[in-house]
Design a protein that fits this description.
The chain is an all-alpha fold. 78% of the residues lie in helices and 0% in strands.
Length: 98
């Protein structure tokens, strides 16, 4: 069974790259179909659409792993239920004062 998983494990990077290329094509088609008529802007090439995807990921996306918990969740992970409740009370009181 482990041998079969190792074969399939090599497919994931290729699948990831294929998804990026497909998304770039979709972005280009949507941009060129909608925005030039709507906003009177130029059409974009395939590589420009890929650059646009990368830029939006940098500006708006998280650069960490998608399944990684946010900071507050990591902080709560090591706390007892009493500590969590105390932290919530302090946070609520802090926000009420402002």
């Amino acid at each position: 069974m482990k041998h079969d998983f190792k074969k399939k494990k090599g497919i994931f990077p290729l699948l990831f790259i294929a998804i990026i290329f497909a998304l770039s094509g979709i972005v280009m088609l949507l941009w060129n179909a909608i925005l030039p008529d709507l906003l009177s802007i130029k059409t974009i090439t395939y590589w420009q659409s890929m650059g646009l995807l990368v830029l939006t990921r940098i500006l708006f996306g998280r650069l960490e792993k998608p399944n990684r918990p946010k900071f507050a969740n990591r902080k709560f992970r090591g706390m007892t239920p009493e500590e969590k409740e105390e932290f919530r009370d302090k946070w609520k009181n802090k926000n009420d004062k402002q």
